[in-house]
Design brief:
The complex is a heterodimer. Chain A contains 14 helices and 13 strands. Chain A is an alpha/beta fold. Chain A folds into two domains: about 240 residues, Response regulator (Rossmann fold), CATH 3.40.50.2300; about 160 residues, Response regulator (Rossmann fold), CATH 3.40.50. Chain A is globular, with a radius of gyration of 21 Å. Chain B has a domain of about 220 residues. Classes of the chains: A alpha/beta, B mainly alpha.
């Protein structure tokens, strides 16, 4: 079986190498190795499978086939640079590095090279300000929305009053984990809860002391910004100290099946945020089965379909394809350039009718992107893990986050970036 | 036949003691330099500069730095990643604090700051040796990473703790930032490499280098003949950290553009540089270059062959890369424990006699 797969890959490589008329190139900066592979694999699989499906079912976007180039970064910033440099020459339309560190590095580069970058639910949050960041998009939700969504959920279960409660933030000690701190500090002032910060160092396998502290301090709620191996360790540690799982809320990156399965029944009730649908109960997955799985073209091992992070990669690819369609409409050409792709992303409108037509009804929130707002509406829902059925269940609607607080912080941070780099405001 | 020293007579001491006493070596050196400065910028593309040559040049500086400390002075250090972080954060603070300061001075000053920090962490080397010193420098590594993560002043209180290099230019050409032309960044790094390698070579040939080597070979004997261990060890730590700091500053400002201490300057970086020094050859400037080239080029080469040529899935290629590079390291250490530099030395010995070995 391995050999046939190898042969298949070799065959695709050969067909890719032969001169095809201008393809639409979507690089996938993935990581299938290292301590973050647990999250990297399903995302990369979902991203690849959507493109495979569009190629097989519709013959590409507007008739132009999609070519996806995968490059392994291992979540490492230096390999990220190498991947970016090696793929940008191929006419890459949009980058989705799935790493906040690589995002920070690529922001100036993509802006200089005129290639758009989409960091869905990660990256530099203040890139939501399109006036400053012309080529970076982070719709439909970002880290600060996530922090606010988590706090809103806690407010909901406490009838709107969390004065005097304690919320502990367990975070990956990196740019990713530190992003929500400012927002949570502002929110703690606004709502009067006490915030306690617990950093977990890369890669996150060692968390005994942090959870010992949680056991001693007994915070009412724990919010987690973790990724990769850190998530499952945290869920296991929380189970070990018998922390009530329904009071433990992870960001969307801490909400994969692989994060909760190792803890078994003890993980029952663990909550995670999400900004897209979970499970494979959508009509589009019939197409995935027919056009991707049955011909044997599923990416990776093909065992991730329908998992939370797979769906996120799938959703990211869907948004990319829709943006490319929008770009084709705006410019009236099928063979779009990265600059046109950028215009398409800026004019992207996702509504219920569009998602239903794609076989993904209510898969994500409806939103539209504009020149000023690259961040979308910041809607997020809460999913809860059912250990018995081994599946995530959405327990809330896509609810808005506290844009009053977040908007201010976004302007502040993006203006600081603009001043540092002498960027003039756009969209005026 | 071609490579020979017969007939190459020296008539003065200065000539006899020059770095490359054999004419063939000397010409090879000048031709390499001319090629690197005059030909390379015109023939190679952006991908090669950004993905291969820049990291090679920068890591070569770091490897020379560690080679001075470990190879010449015999003090094992696992703190290189931390010292590179000092260089990077010093460069960031200097660039944002003094926007008008020329980037060349920024980088040299970052090296200076790192030299001071390195000397501070070198103090325990007066009392502890070998493995114990390695552990002490390991502490430096973890402490420095922790410090840059913990104190927001170092990253100008940014929300994410990331540092990003603003654009700085020389003679109107951007060197750092996204608008820097690859050829300009390349020449900028090359100048630093040439100057620093030249300085290191001459330092190690002079009185200081001899003191370092005396301490390395037998510290008690060195002390008896009048080598001051305090001064010698601290200068080794200082010079080494100066080089490593410069490498860290350039890695951050010229190559990466943005960095985060835990990810870019973690313990794995310390090991990477130590591997470069060991594989290249301890106590050899050429070895530092060879080791850096091996550790930087090998993974990129393997990746391009396995994914680009053979069309393997990326994860399998990445895993094989680990296997092959790891296997080669073990093979090298068994077959030639003195590193690539020793291989080069042996090749030269053979070439002198070739084609008439008897």
């Amino acid at each position: 079986m391995k050999m046939t797969k190898l042969a298949a890959f070799a065959a695709t490589a050969i067909t890719m190498a032969s001169p095809v008329l201008a393809d639409l190139v979507f690089p996938s900066l993935s990581y299938r190795t290292g301590p973050y592979a647990a999250g990297g694999i399903p995302f990369a699989d979902g991203y690849a499978d959507y493109f495979t499906m569009v190629n097989a079912r519709d013959g590409g976007i507007g008739g132009v086939p999609i070519k996806m180039i995968e490059c392994e970064t291992g979540y490492n910033t230096e390999k990220g640079v190498e991947c970016y440099e090696s793929t940008k020459g191929e006419g890459a339309l949009v980058y989705q590095p799935l790493s906040t560190g690589i995002t920070y590095q690529l922001i100036p580069k993509v802006t200089a090279d005129g290639i758009p970058m989409h960091t869905m639910g990660y990256g530099r949050t203040s890139a939501a300000n399109g006036k400053v960041f012309s080529n970076v998009f982070n719709y439909p939700a970002n880290y600060w929305n996530g922090a606010s969504n988590a706090v809103n959920h806690i407010l909901d279960i406490n009838d709107g009053n969390i004065e005097g409660k304690t919320i502990a933030l367990v975070y990956h000690n990196s740019a990713y984990g530190k992003e929500p701190i400012r927002t949570l500090e502002e929110l703690s002032k606004k709502h009067g809860f006490k915030l306690s910060l617990l950093a977990v160092d890369h890669p996150g396998q060692e968390q005994k002391s942090q959870w010992l502290q949680i056991r001693r301090e007994k915070p009412d709620y724990v919010v987690m910004y973790g990724w990769g191996v850190m998530n499952q360790v945290a869920v296991q540690e929380a189970a070990n100290i018998r922390f009530p799982m329904e009071n433990f809320i992870g960001i969307w990156w801490s909400g994969g099946e692989h994060d909760v399965l190792p803890a078994g029944d003890a993980a029952n009730g663990y909550k995670a945020l999400t900004f897209h649908g979970v499970g494979k109960d959508y009509p589009v997955f019939a197409d995935v089965q027919k056009y991707v799985v049955e011909p044997g073209n599923a990416a990776g091992a093909g065992d991730q379909i329908g998992t939370a992070v797979y769906n996120r990669g799938f959703y990211a690819a869907m948004l990319a394809v829709e943006a490319a369609k929008t770009a084709q409409e705006i410019h009236g050409v099928k063979d779009i350039t990265p600059a046109m792709m950028r215009d398409g992303m800026e004019a992207l409108v996702i509504d219920e009718a569009k998602m239903t037509a794609l076989g993904m009804p209510n898969f994500g929130p409806s939103f539209s992107v504009s020149c000023e707002n690259h961040g979308g509406p910041g809607l997020g829902g809460v999913a809860q893990w059912d250990a018995g059925a081994k599946e995530w269940k959405l327990i809330s609607d896509y609810a808005p986050s506290d844009m009053e607080v977040i908007g201010e912080l976004i302007v502040e941070d993006s203006m600081a970036f603009a001043a540092e780099n002498n960027i003039e405001e756009r969209c005026n | 036949m071609i490579y020979r020293e017969a007939g190459d007579f020296k008539t003065s001491y200065a000539k006899d003691q020059q770095t490359f006493p054999i004419a063939f070596d000397r010409w090879g050196y000048f031709i390499t330099l001319a090629f690197a400065f005059l030909v390379v910028p015109f023939i190679i593309n952006d991908y090669w500069i950004n993905a291969v040559v820049l990291p090679f040049l920068i890591y070569a500086i770091a490897a020379i730095g560690l080679n001075i400390l470990t190879g010449y002075c015999g003090q094992v250090s696992l703190g290189s990643g931390g010292f590179m972080a000092v260089g990077a954060y010093a460069a960031y603070k200097l660039m944002t604090g003094f926007p008008d300061l020329n980037i060349v001075f920024v980088i040299f000053l970052s090296g200076g700051v790192t030299a001071l920090v390195g000397m501070l962490f070198g103090l325990p080397s007066l009392r502890i040796k070998g493995f114990y010193l390695a552990v002490a420098t390991l502490a430096a590594q973890f402490f420095l990473v922790w410090l840059f993560n913990k104190v927001p002043w170092f990253y100008n209180y940014s929300a994410s703790g990331q540092i990003s290099a603003p654009e700085r230019s020389i003679f109107g050409y951007a060197v750092t930032g996204a608008n820097a032309l690859p050829a300009v960044s390349y020449l900028f790094c090359l100048c630093f490499v040439v100057i620093l390698a030249w300085a290191a070579r001459n330092l190690t040939r002079g009185a200081n280098g001899r003191k370092w080597m005396a301490i390395r070979d037998m510290d008690i004997a060195a002390e008896i003949i009048g080598v001051n261990p305090l001064k010698t060890k601290l200068t080794a730590f200082g010079v080494s950290s100066f080089y490593i700091g410069i490498a860290g500053a350039m890695l951050f400002a010229v190559y990466l553009g943005a960095a985060e201490v835990g990810e870019a300057f973690g313990i794995s970086k310390s090991f990477l540089i130590l591997f470069m020094v060991i594989i290249g050859g301890l106590g050899s400037i050429f070895g530092s270059f060879a080791g850096a080239a091996f550790m930087v080029l090998m993974p990129v080469l393997l990746k391009n062959v396995m994914v680009g040529q053979l069309g393997w899935p990326t994860d399998m290629a990445a895993h094989f890369e680990f296997v092959i590079v790891g296997g080669l390291i073990v093979l090298f250490l068994i077959v030639e424990p003195h590193g690539l530099a020793q291989l080069w030395r042996l090749a030269k010995e053979k070439l002198r006699l070739w084609p008439f070995p008897h």
